Structure formats: C-alpha cells, structure tokens
Amino acid sequence: MMRVLLIRGMLVGLASVVPAYVCAWFLGEGPLGDAIAFEDRQSHAAEGLHEHGVEVVSRLTQQTVGLAVALAAIGLAVGGLFAIMFALAHQRIGRLSARATSMVVAVAGFVVISLVAFLKYPPNPPAVGDPETIQQRSLLYFLTIVIGIFAAITAVQTGRRLTPRYGGWNASLLGCGVFVVLVGIAYVVLPGGTVTETGFPPDVLWDFRIASLATQAVIWVTLGLMFGALTERDVTGARRERVPKVHA
Amino acid sequence: MTQAPPARTASLPAQIPIREIIPWAVFALVVGLLLIYFVGAEQGATSLFGGNLIHEFTHDGRHLLGFPCH
C-alpha cells in the first residue's frame, strides 16, 4: 500500500507543475522581469560585473524549461514527502476520511514548510539581497524550516497526548498553540531578515513575494485535493469490492 | 452466508503500520532532499559542481519557490 501511495504522491506532485507553472507565469514572471530590469539598470550605472551580465542560460529558457523543471523537481520531492505524511496521519489524527486527511496534511505542509519560513525570511527577487550573505541566508532559511518541522512534530504529539483528556478538537487547538509558541520563540531568537536594497520598487517586491507564496500554495492545494480524491476513490472502491461483483 | 475474503487490492487499511512506512519514508526523504538541494541551493549557498549552470537554469523556480537565490 505504501508503495502505491508514494508513487501516487510523486505523480500528483509532478502534475502540480501545471497549475503551479500557470501561477508562477502569470503572477511571478512580471515582477521577476521588473527586478532583473532594475538590476540591469543598477549595474549599468555602477559599470560593475554582475551575475546576469554573462548569459549562461537565456532568459527564455529560465522562464520556460528552467522554471518547469524546477517546479517538477520540487513537485516530485514534496509529493513523495506528502505521501509519507499522509500515511502517518491516516487514521491517526482522528477519524477523518482519506480526502479530509489529505487536505489537513496539505494545509499543515503549507504552513510548516512554506509559510513559517516565508514570514521570517521572505523570498527576494533578483537585485534584492546581498550575494555576500547568500550562505548565511540559505542556512537560516533551511534552519527555519527544520525548526518548523520539529515544532509541528511536538505539536502533533502534544495534541495526541491531550486528546483523551480534552477531546479531539480542543487537543488539536492546544497542539496548534504549542506550534505557534515554538515558532514564535524561534522567530525572536533567530536573527533578522534581509535588508532591501535602497531604491528597489516596493510594489514589485510585494508582488514578487505574493507570487512566490501563491505558487507554493498552489502546489500544496493541488497535492491535497488530487491525492485526496484519488485515495478516497481507493477506499470507497475497496468497500464496494467486498460485495462480490457480478460479471456480465 | 460466507463473505468474500478481502481481496489484496490497493485498499487502504485502518492504519498503515509504521514499520511499513519507514523504508519508503527513507527513500522519499533521500530523493526529496536531493531534488530540493539541486533546485534550492546548488551553486548558490554551496556548490558541488563548479560554474553556475544549475543556478541559472533553475533561477526563476528558485526565486519563486522562496529559496534564497543570490
């Protein structure tokens, strides 16, 4: 069964490329292009070398195949991990249907993996962020995600432990509370985010960040809905199979 | 009345035993982290292969998926 679920998760993750690409194309490529234009203007003014000066990969390739392949790789990775999270959650986080469990896992995945890091270290378009600090920023970004995952594990364990005493709903709320407190402590302890380069248009920065968050949300929602629908069909299909089929 | 024995199809049991999940979880984690690394960090924060081909190729995706790019 686990093999079926894992393959399904990875395939659904791969399929999420389609809506994610549409989202990234229509929301993201505009501000991304504006940011690159800003960067070019700046480097022309400074007469300095910069990384977009020599085109290793053309902009068109970056916008089409490059973006699609990057989304596909992340879709495969996240889809596989999603299937594992679903398998762990199925019938262990209350008596939810496969469809509902899938959606809960998707929302939790979005919050823990995407939103926690987004709120502390929001993504930056080209020209924002000092290349000198890329290692430190990457480390903090991934560290925040890992902290979020540990906070989520603690929250789920707390919720499960408190369920007999407070009931499923209240125990879940308490679990969410534990998650928020742990992430809040991490936010306070971790150093601040990046400083936006002066002169960068704030509306472009806002649009870019919203596009980034939307693209990630689309991946999670697609996973939650499609994986849920397919797995629900499995469950009801299996139920129907118990009634001996009449072969025509 | 005899009931048909539950067929070993791809039906979803009540809970999937942790022991059954673990090997697949390890596999998904290794493949997943490898993919995430190449899309998210290679030739940015760290670099296994020289140059910046992977960085430039995944450039738009890396930015839009929220990774620090450069």
Automatic annotation (TrEMBL), chain A:
InterPro entries: CbtA_put (IPR012666)
Domain of life according to the entry: Bacteria
Transmembrane spans: 65-88, 100-119, 139-156, 168-190, 210-230
Sorted UniProt keywords: Membrane, Transmembrane, Transmembrane helix
Name under which the protein is recorded: Probable cobalt transporter subunit (CbtA)
Species of provenance: Nonomuraea wenchangensis
From TrEMBL, chain B:
InterPro entries reported for this sequence: CbtB_put
Keywords: Membrane, Transmembrane, Transmembrane helix
Regions that span the bilayer: 21-40
Alphabetical list of Pfam families matching this protein: CbtB (PF09489)
Protein name per the record: Cobalt transporter subunit CbtB
Organism lineage: Bacteria, Bacillati, Actinomycetota, Actinomycetes, Streptosporangiales
